[in-house]
Amino acid sequence: MWDAITGWGGWGEVGTGAAWLVTVCLVVTGLLGCVLPVLPGHLLIVLAAVSHRLLLGARSGVEWWTFAVLVALMAAAQAFEFFSGAAGSKWFGGSRWGAAGAVAGGLAGMFFMPFGLVVGPLAGAILCELLFANKQVRPATVSGVGSVVGVAAGMLVKLAVGVLMTLWLLLDILLIG
User: Fold this and answer.
1) Contact 78, 132 (CB under 8 A)
2) Helices (H) and strands (E) in the chain, counts
3) Separation CA 151–CA 141 (nearest Å)
4) Per residue of the chain (177 residues), what is the pLDDT tens digit?
5) Which has the closest alpha carbon to 45: 33, 58, 57?
6) CA–CA separation, 147 vs 87, rounded Å?
7) H/E segment holding residue 144
8) Whole-model pTM above 0.85?
């Protein structure tokens, strides 16, 4: 059913309990996805907000600006995660080649989840340091370990952003809306 005043529809047949069940399931799965690389964690939290709004309509409490904030947080977390391996490599003394190798290894590692997300940046940073930066094995390995530390930091940031997104959504539904 379309609500001409708010511009959002609501499925009047769906009860509040069912809407909350869907929302909570999506949020919990989304939070798990922030640490398990096989699930799109932040996207599931955004979908929780969308489904809550669609299922309950204007009485859901979810405002349009919440969608904007959640999408912005999701994009920031994904960008941070993407470059965290390269940042870790640089932080541990790696060259531009090591950072580029960490990014390339992270991209290749996405196809070999979940271990590829750790092994990919490690191997990419080490190989690029050895082959292109002409570093010895020890400094190249330190750069690779730095990329793994960066990836771990990226996962922690992803989880923190997921918790922040969840709190934002719940506050919008329960207090503001």
Assistant:
1) no
2) 6, 0
3) 15
4) 444 444 445 555 567 888 899 999 999 999 999 988 778 999 999 999 999 998 888 778 888 889 999 999 999 998 888 788 888 888 888 888 988 888 899 888 888 877 888 899 889 999 999 999 889 999 999 988 998 899 889 889 999 999 999 999 999 988 865
5) 33
6) 7
7) helix 137-171
8) no
Please name the amino acid found at residue 13: E
**Cα 85 to the chain's mean position, in Å?**
14
> In this structure, what are the phi and psi dihedrals at residue 38, rounded to the nearest 5 degrees?
-85, -10
Q: Nearest Cα to 30, choosing from 53, 55, 51?
A: 51
d(CA 82, CA 135): 25
Smallest Cα–Cα separation from 3: which of 53, 64, 57?
57
| Tokens matching residue 96 | 């531009």
